[in-house]
């Protein structure tokens, strides 16, 4: 029968845990509950907190706020700067958020312009849902408790637990490929349908056609497109693109990253539909002026896509900009103040006529079935399991090499023996 305080042995050291009396410091969160609840209710709306962030915070509030221990009896950590607690360290989730401020102060003496300037600074934070209450409740309580005018978190973006092939991701155990649910077959399908057939297809069709020699293309020079706004198909596209860009900016401002990415990919889909509807390959001979409008508008969309996708696929954006032959950083900032969003409604104006593009190349490649099997096997199990497999594979490889060496030596010895016998026979005849 199980008895109170009866423990098994510790997994690491294999010793039996002991109960000891010790003093600790606690954060008196309950005394700040009224102001804290007010802050959370107001900021969660103004900052468009993700639903899981609100739920995680409200769960602590619903249980009733309790004093939280902020010290630990450990050797590793930040020492408590108090004589009575010099043998203790701070609890990591009390100490770590304070590090945001102290690290900034190490970087610049003007740190207060960031951390004590709530009227002019907006603080965004990104984390897994396990860590939400430490930021929305514990750290916020610390800042409120000082009575000083700190910059407090406005917006928080929170990820769910990550699942890998019906199991759970574990960084410590080395399981997974660091979406909420990851499977290799899903990656394969999305790579084919969304990246290859949609985004990659659109960008490559546009740039490859412009890069074709004069007579069948534009010799890599972006064509002029006068009166593009009077082209009905192009005008309809531009209106859709402008709306999508507005939606993208709104989503990103609210840290709705998945929605932002989906909106960006919608522009690529619109671009593919635009190309098909225009039948540009026929227009090139039958209506060159309209074809030029379609191509210059489309290359503008390519530029917009490179900008919108930079937060999600930075290396792909860099490659697209390279293929467009634009040096340096992507200059389209998508700022209302600069009129960039309005400019997105006139995509034919984004890339100047006469601009010479670079060399088009496919941006993505297909993930084959055998590769899916290989990667699933490679990242299956724990890191320790994979090391054992790797060691076994190395041992097998070494054994095979030794076997080959022995066979090779045996063949050499046999050949040498045969040669010697042959010479002896010849000598006997002589």
Plain-language structure description:
This protein has 430 residues and is mostly helical. Among the domains are: 135 residues, HUPs (Rossmann fold), CATH 3.40.50.620; 160 residues, Isoleucyl-tRNA Synthetase, Domain 1. The protein contains 14 helices and nine strands. The chain has a three-stranded mixed sheet. The protein has a two-stranded antiparallel ribbon with strand order 1-2. α7 packs parallel to α10. The radius of gyration is 32 Å and the shape is flat. It starts with 25 loop residues before the first strand and ends with a helix.
Question: Characteristics of this structure?
Answer:
single chain; 430 residues; mainly alpha; Rossmann fold; three-stranded mixed β-sheet; flat; disordered C terminus; EC 6.1.1.10
């Amino acid at each position: 029968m199980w008895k109170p305080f009866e423990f098994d042995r510790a997994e690491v050291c294999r010793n039996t845990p002991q109960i000891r009396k010790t003093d600790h410091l606690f954060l008196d969160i309950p005394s700040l509950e009224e102001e804290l609840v007010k802050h959370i209710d107001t900021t969660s709306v103004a900052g468009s907190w993700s639903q899981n962030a609100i739920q995680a915070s409200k769960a602590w509030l619903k249980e009733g706020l309790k004093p939280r221990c902020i010290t630990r009896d450990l050797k590793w950590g930040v020492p408590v700067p108090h004589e009575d607690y010099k043998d203790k360290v701070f609890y990591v989730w009390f100490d770590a958020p304070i590090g945001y401020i102290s690290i900034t102060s190490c970087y610049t003496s003007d740190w207060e312009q960031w951390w004590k300037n709530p009227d002019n600074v907006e603080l965004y934070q990104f984390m897994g849902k396990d860590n939400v209450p430490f930021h929305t409740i514990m750290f916020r309580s610390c800042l409120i408790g000082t009575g000083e005018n700190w910059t407090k978190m406005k917006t928080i973006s929170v990820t769910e637990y990550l699942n890998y092939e019906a199991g759970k991701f574990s960084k410590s155990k080395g399981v997974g490929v660091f979406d909420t649910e990851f499977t290799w077959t899903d990656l394969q399908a999305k790579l084919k349908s969304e990246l290859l057939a949609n985004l990659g297809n659109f960008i490559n069709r546009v740039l490859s056609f412009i890069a074709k020699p004069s007579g069948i293309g534009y010799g890599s020079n972006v064509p002029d497109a006068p009166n593009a706004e009077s082209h009905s198909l192009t005008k309809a596209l531009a209106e859709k693109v402008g709306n999508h860009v507005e939606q993208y900016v709104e989503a990103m401002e609210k840290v709705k990253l998945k929605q932002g990415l989906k909106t960006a990919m919608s522009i690529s889909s619109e671009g593919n539909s635009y190309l098909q509807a225009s039948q540009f390959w026929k227009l090139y001979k039958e209506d060159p002026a309209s074809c030029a409008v379609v191509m210059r508008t489309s290359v503008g969309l390519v530029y917009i896509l490179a900008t919108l996708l930079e937060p999600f696929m930075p290396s792909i954006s860099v490659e697209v900009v390279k293929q467009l032959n634009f040096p340096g950083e992507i200059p389209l900032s998508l700022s209302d103040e600069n009129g960039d969003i309005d400019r997105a409604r006139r995509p034919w104006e984004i890339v100047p006529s006469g601009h010479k593009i670079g060399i088009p190349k496919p941006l993505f490649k297909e993930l084959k079935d055998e590769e899916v099997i290989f990667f699933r096997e490679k990242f299956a199990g724990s890191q320790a399991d994979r090391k054992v497999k790797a060691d076994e594979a190395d041992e097998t490889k070494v054994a095979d090499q030794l076997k080959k060496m022995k066979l090779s030596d045996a063949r050499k010895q046999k050949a040498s023996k045969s040669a010697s016998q042959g010479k002896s026979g010849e000598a006997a005849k002589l």
